[in-house]
Amino acid sequence: MANRHTIILMQTSQNRATRTFMDYESITQAMDGICALYERKLKELNPTIRNLSYDITDLYNFIDGLADMSALVYVPLSHSQKSCACIVH
Hints:
Layout: E1 6-11, E2 19-24, H1 27-45, H2 56-64, E3 68-75, E4 80-83
Antiparallel strand pairs: 1-2, 1-3, 3-4
């Protein structure tokens, strides 16, 4: 599964203007990107705390709090993008 081009589609609130996407060279980079997005949000909400920690439940709650999140993963044999059900919100 390495090096599968992955696009994360995201909408942070019900406002359609918050729709955006993130483009990655692999599924692993996309997952790291989602974690980094959450970490930036944590720092934004807690600017005075130097060392923040979280567990997978916190990350899942962050994702569940988004209006929408989906992933498109390139499948080389079909030369197309496929929706990945693993992180469809």
